[in-house]
Request: fold
Amino acid sequence: MKVSDEFVVPLCRLHHREVHHARNELAWWSDLKIDPIEVARKLWLENHPKSASTLTEQDQNIISTEQPGTERPDVPTKAPAIGTDA
Reply:
């Protein structure tokens, strides 16, 4: 049975292979210091917007904050605009 996309964290090919070879998926995520449920929830909320009045306080916090230690300086947060000098 396929899990709902609400609970999916997209992975690159390398990490997809790693998680499938891990004997314990929860330990694999823990070693990376990533909470996959929180990441999946944040992605879901960002891509399935609701009116602000229906978001819980916890949902608003998930959307507006990064988990400490999850910043990735090597990954751009915004794609560069095409056709600009920026």
About this structure: Confidence is low (pLDDT under 50) at residues 74-80.
